[in-house]
Design brief:
Radius of gyration: 19 Å
Strand content: over 45%
Order of helices and strands: EEHEEEHEEEEEEEEE
Number of helices: 2
Helix content: under 10%
Distance between the termini: 19 Å
Number of domains: 2
CATH architecture of the largest domain: Sandwich
CATH class of the largest domain: Mainly Beta
CATH topology of the largest domain: Immunoglobulin-like
Shape: elongated
Largest sheet: 10 strands, mixed
């Protein structure tokens, strides 16, 4: 499962969201809209939230005004696309999450078994060195998010983690299994993503 997210860039102290229509819908925007807001030039801590369907993602990160361009040609800045603004820009250090749920062809997992889910943290492309995801915690819910249970997690590669979910009996999770992931990188940036129903049991 890949969770779509809006593309985030800084230009002249503004955090600008640019994405395809489906991605912009995450930020509550109509297709084709560009959303921006002013931020102080001084380094500060920010929170950014997005929600699509029932999946909620909350980022916390530290950023400051860009002093030089740090964006690849394949990921151009807003000004290069819609105007002549040539101010320095770069992607914000948001941690995005990609999942391999290892589901059967009918998108289910066998009840009453331990099941492994792989989670990969990644960032928007940039020229400078990217942060490294240093820790990841997982929680599961079998009652639609009313209660959460920690799930064992281990690092299995660069920015890659495996969490083991102990699936209950099918009647103990009639609405499916939910997952909540919290990750942190070596710059102190964090993400928490809540998926109320990651998969169903058979």
């Amino acid at each position: 499962m890949n969770t779509p997210v809006p593309s985030v860039r800084r230009r002249r102290g503004a955090l600008t969201l640019l994405a395809a229509a489906a991605m912009l819908a995450l930020a509550g925007c109509k297709g084709g809209d560009l959303v921006s807001y002013d931020l102080p030039a001084k380094s500060a801590r920010y929170t950014f939230e997005a929600q699509t369907n029932d999946v909620k993602t909350v980022w916390q990160y530290t950023s400051a005004k860009a002093t030089k361009d740090d964006a690849p040609k394949l990921s151009p800045c807003i000004g290069e696309l819609v105007g002549s603004n040539q101010a320095a820009c770069r992607p914000e250090p948001l941690i995005f999450l990609r999942y391999d749920f290892g589901l059967a062809l009918d998108n289910t997992v066998k009840a009453g078994t331990d099941h492994e889910v792989t989670v990969v943290g990644y960032y928007q492309p940039r020229l400078a060195d990217l942060p490294k995801v240093t820790s990841l915690e997982a929680e599961t819910t079998f009652d639609g998010g009313r209660t959460w249970h920690p799930a064992a997690t281990k690092a299995t590669g660069k920015n890659t983690f495996t969490t083991t979910i102990r699936n209950p009996r099918r009647d103990q999770a009639p609405g499916g299994v939910g997952l909540r992931i919290s990750a942190t990188d070596n710059q102190g940036n964090t993400v928490r993503q809540t998926i109320p129903m990651a998969y169903t049991l058979r």
